[in-house]
Amino acid sequence: MPDQQMIVNEYIRELEGEARATRDCLANVPMDKPEYVPHEKSMQLGYLAILVADIPRWIQYMIEQGTIDFQTYQQKQAKSSEDLVALFDENLANAKAALSSITDSELSNIFTLKNGDQVYLTQPLSESISEAINHMVHHRGQLTVYLRLNDIAVPSIYGPSADTQSF
Fold first, then answer.
1. What is the tens place of the pLDDT at every residue in 61-110?
2. How many CB atoms lie within 10 A of CB 158?
3. 50: exposed, middle or buried (Cβ count in 10 Å: 0-12, 13-18, 19+)
4. Side-chain half-sphere CA neighbours of 107 within 13 A
5. 6-149 has which fold?
6. Is residue 118 within a helix (H) or strand (E), and if so which, with residue range?
7. Which of 21, 60, 73, 113 fits as disulfide partner to 98, beta carbons 3.0 to 4.6 Å?
């Protein structure tokens, strides 16, 4: 039986399913306030927004390189909400292309996340990809709180928000 991409295709479908809401959130980010924090323990708005836009690139690196090393990984920058959306779209397209290049059996390949010599985790791609998608959704949720606290419309995510009447 030939190797298939049933699980890989589900990851692509899930990324595509989260793309609209993520893009809509990023489009509303006020990048003229990149240092805004709602609490002293919170991330800065600009960093958080770039993180959300960048996470799909992690999936590309997981597949193509097998490792992300925070000592050498260079997060891309964005100066405006338009830059954020463009960055997200580029990273999403590259993640989907990387996913399309592998088979389900390759999801058992090992991925390592580290910072120099310090290894944070080593696990199969299947777990890492799923966690990356969840991580993006989690930080997108944080981003909606930042938007609300800045009196900026929160787009619909899985249904209408208090600011929207439709999806």
1. 999 999 999 999 999 999 999 999 999 999 999 999 999 999 999 999 99
2. 9
3. buried
4. 19
5. Four Helix Bundle (Hemerythrin (Met), subunit A) (1.20.120)
6. strand 118-124
7. 60
For residue 151, CA distances in Å to 21, 64, 82, 144, 163 come to 18, 40, 19, 10, 10
Tokens 């990324």 appear where? 15
Q: Cβ neighbours of residue 83 under 8 Å, at least 6 residues apart?
A: 31, 77
Q: Which amino acid, one-letter code, is at 75?
A: Q
Which residues, 6+ apart, have CB-to-CB distance to 38 below 8 Å?
145, 146, 149
Model confidence at 165, in pLDDT bands (50, 70, 90)? confident
Residue 112, both tokens: 């390592």
Q: State the Cα–Cα distance between residues 111 and 36, nearest whole angstrom.
A: 34
**1 pLDDT band (50/70/90 cuts)?**
very low
Q: Tell me what the pLDDT averaged over the chain comes to.
A: 95
What SS3 class is residue 80? coil
Task: Output DSSP code: residue 149.
Answer: H
